[in-house]
Amino acid sequence: MTSRNLTKGKSHANTEKLITESDLIARILSGTEKMHSRILIGPGDDSAIFENKKTAISTDLTIENVHFCRNWVNLDEVGYRAVMVAVSDLAAMASNPFGVLISLALPEENAVRITEELGDGIRRALRKIGATLIGGDLSRSPGPIIIDVVVLGEINDLITRRGIRPGDDIWVTGVLGGSSAAVKTWLAGGVPENGLRETFAKPPFRVREAQWLVKNAGIRTMIDLSDGLLRDLSHLAQASKVGIVLESDVIPLHPDLDVDDALSLGISGGEDYELCLVSKKGALDPFLEKFRDEFDISMTKVGYVEKGSEVRVVGEYSTSLMQQNVSGFDHFSPWRV
Amino acid sequence: MTSRNLTKGKSHANTEKLITESDLIARILSGTEKMHSRILIGPGDDSAIFENKKTAISTDLTIENVHFCRNWVNLDEVGYRAVMVAVSDLAAMASNPFGVLISLALPEENAVRITEELGDGIRRALRKIGATLIGGDLSRSPGPIIIDVVVLGEINDLITRRGIRPGDDIWVTGVLGGSSAAVKTWLAGGVPENGLRETFAKPPFRVREAQWLVKNAGIRTMIDLSDGLLRDLSHLAQASKVGIVLESDVIPLHPDLDVDDALSLGISGGEDYELCLVSKKGALDPFLEKFRDEFDISMTKVGYVEKGSEVRVVGEYSTSLMQQNVSGFDHFSPWRV
């Protein structure tokens, strides 16, 4: 660190006068509904306090130039997406979000405008999910916009990644590959089609679907598709010490994908935030029509569980291609398309 | 963002092979005790799940070149400090920590070494506070090391910043100004005395003290001293719509402070992480000796509550100096000494 930066860190009177942590929270809160009944103490004290017997908690970082670029989407969309991506982990637990904490680190330049735009998106997301902002932190950033979102949800049933058995069916909601296709296009200097852009900017909210599947179809194992279908299936396989067969010919692909790389993106692009769930063989089939009627999204059987310890791709995708695609991927690098 | 950075973001095979999110969690977890009994599902699923009726939650960002520099302290100390600073908010609620989530964003260079060193400190802090690491997130950082720590604690009594009345006494634990004196010295290019450096690197853990004070002395109002005594008192005053008189001649100052700026740092330096608490007039005095015997730290009466809406400094500090010092401070700028 240079002394110039240090000096800069010490003197930014304009910013200080324009924005404080309580300002920030007040700005983000304005326009949201009253506090969720589980919240005993909201923002403004040392900690928030909530009342709930069993609670799911998850946290997700969104960092400028790692998870988004400012010339891809506007900051309202960034704020919305940061919350929805974090909530996706609760959806995989069929958990209803009630509280959110948001830590922001912002560059000094345009801090007020950035806060307002992010705040618009965050408020939109809070309304969408029905949760209350109960706390957070605010810091100066030495560079990128940094958003860490913590989500709290109610838990009725323990839905985990575990407990699947050979013979079980593997299902996914919605269509895959759209978000990673948008990122791929941006990284190549292009402008993605609107349908693809939207899947990046507006991750789906699948809590209602997850709870419906648990209640009506007895689903007990789910995961949200954040790392790409192939890698997320390997998480499932590892958790239950089984093998999984993925039938590449039936993967539900986003309709706007280019033919050339559609399957590759659908199978390993990541950041789809759809649900992947496991049912006993044939057990979900009787509920499919009702599910589609209720939610107007597709539900596709993409494979099955077998004895073993690997994810095998059958159909037009070769094993070698699978290995090449899946081996190096990790959260550490969100842009891997 | 330049295309060079984007390219860099796409290819870092060495790092990918060396570290993954599950690796990270495994590395941090290794050596920690078994999971706290409140944790139903720990790391490795989509969310963690815990069981607790009333829960305190707080979150604190630690960002390189904003909250620390690598040539000030080692990364083991950074990891320890990041957790302890977050836990300080729970101490102010007299809340016993049981769970922690840690989001890390790391530059690619030396990511494994950085993770191991931070992990050593994080583990030390977890052992110190008796809490379990139950989740988190891992991301690439485009520059600084970024750590967001979320702490969860049990709540028996609601201890807040509110409910103080004219006539009440204001107390602080320990001594003040040491941490900000260390930062001031570093920012000026010097090397702080070891006693000052330690107050920065090892924020105190005051949960036991807080719980003792609630149980034995009936304390109902506390705040942790993160923003500097003067500013934190103004938070207290605002929360209860009262005035506070601070007696500058009795502020307990760190013994290693330079005479010249000792009072200024003690009164407004910040990052002390001691407790500031409020008792009915005279109500805490009978418990002072027992408190000192039990915890071997000082407890000092530094002022009292009055009608009004401002914090007044009496003694050798003038009102004008107070105004100058307190007006611009905020979390947005941790280095304000």
Could you please describe the fold and organization of this structure?
The structure is a homodimer of 337-residue chains. Chain A is an alpha+beta fold. Chain A has two domains: 8-154, 60s Ribosomal Protein L30, Chain: A, CATH 3.30.1330; 169-326, Alpha-Beta Complex (Phosphoribosyl-aminoimidazole Synthetase, Chain A, domain 2). Chain A is 36% helix and 23% strand. Chain A is built from twelve helices and twelve strands. Chain A has helices at residues 3-10, 13-18, 21-29, 75-91, 111-129, 178-187, 194-201, 207-217, 229-240, 262-268, 288-295, 319-326, and strands at residues 39-41, 48-51, 54-63, 96-106, 132-140, 146-154, 169-173, 221-224, 243-247, 275-279, 299-306, 311-314. In chain A, the strands form three sheets. A six-stranded mixed sheet of chain A has the order 8-10-7-11-9-12. In chain A, strand 1 and strand 2 form a beta hairpin. In chain A, helix 3 (21-29) packs across helix 5 (111-129) and helix 4 (75-91) packs parallel to helix 5. Chain A is globular and about 55 Å long. At the A-B interface, helix 1, helix 2, strand 2, strand 3 and strand 4 of A face helix 1, helix 2, strand 2, strand 3 and strand 4 of B.
